[in-house]
Design goal:
The chain is mostly helical. It has one domain. The protein is built from 16 helices and 2 strands. Strands 1-2 form a two-stranded antiparallel sheet. It starts with a helix and ends with a helix. About 0% of the residues have low confidence.
Length: about 500
Amino acid sequence: MSSPADLKADPTAKGIKTLDKDLGRIGLLEQATLFTSRPLVAPGIAMVFIALAGLAAATIMGAGTGTWVVVIAAAIGAYMALNIGANDVANNMGPAVGAKAVTLGGALLIAAICETAGALLAGGDVVSTVSRGIVAPESVAEPAIFVWAMMAALLAGALWIHLATAMGAPVSTTHSIVGGVMGAGIAAAGFAAVNWSVMGAIAASWVISPVMGGVIAAGFLAILNNRIIYREDKIAAARTWVPVLIGVMGGVFATYMAMKGLKKLVHLGLGESVLIGVAVAIPLALLMRPVIARQSRGLENRTKSLKALFAIPLVLSAALLSFAHGANDVANAVGPLAAIVHAVQDGASGDRVQIPYWVMITGAVGLSVGLMLFGPRLINIVGSEITRLNAMRAWCVALSAAVVVIFASWLGLPVSSTHIAIGGIFGVGFYREWYHEKILKVNRDLSTLPVEERTRRKVVRRSHMMTILAAWVITVPATAALSGGLFWAATLLAGLR
């Protein structure tokens, strides 16, 4: 190291030291800039996607009357699709990630591919312009009023889902857009325009969806506990029952896909769908018997060893749920947009409209982009922060989601896939609490701890539960109020008031 005398004697050495100091400062500045700009990358990419959606709409529509309205609607539709991807897809992939059956990166890739494929290959080709009868079409038959009502509904739903995602609360995107349509309909034509019987059924689904999901998921976990997990020879029990359970899973998902995921390609009733499920379940169970026997060789006789037998079925179930989600829920992002395009082009609202393919592409790509940019946080919350999941518990949640959707479709109940999946996670967690305390008699003495610490040590984290339940309850009222306010402001600015 050079001494002060050396530096005075050698001006070159002094210059090099000064240069090193300056370069060090620049290096620190670059690191600080990179650190502070990193959170802006995802929003920046999202803004580029929204702008591209608007540009594509302008190019396709051309220089015609109302083009600027469609451009704005396309940008809002792209924003909605981003938020649905960030919030809703976590319900499908969260349990698999929480169970460590797949990495977060792998889950994002699988979900992006399956969501896009479901939206483009099996997405609904027609959609009710008033969100399945929430608002009577004749109440907002004037095209200009209808366009602004749909735009307000779309933006309100997107803003609410964005807020819920930021809060870490998985909410129903269907309920968000329904609340938006209801609020805009009330602002446009009064309370008489709303079909209150349909709204009552939706309100009932707030309770029905999570309760059904929780009860069925807990039931599957009870079967696993009784037949495999708490048996003396777990591996031998797994060789007998895991092929049967995988066969049941395959049959349920075949029925689910026949009824929901492929309804654009072929329309099948419940009976035909169940027959398809049985036709898949029996051969799959027989086929998996030697596979499970081979996989279970050399495994230790403990619960942790069973994870390997459920990992692949769990990933496949998450992929199928993502495909069906893309097929069904893409309409939440692009349904109002398609209605606006129809109203601008044809000058009428109409009861049912065709979704243009460019609109479907906007929704499908938006789901995947939103998932990749903003989905990881909510996936981690759903997968690991509500309650601890392993492969078997996550399998119960995934299978419960499919069973409840099939059952609800048969009964005609308007249930939410989000509520079902989260209800399944709660059901598994609360069942574990009950089973450990009442059956296994594992009672830890926590009486000396503060109330907050006792609550934190529960299997189900109550703080997350209360946040999620509060978000569910206020989704429809919040989006309705926001949509009504946006509609009032938009029509005022447009000179329609």
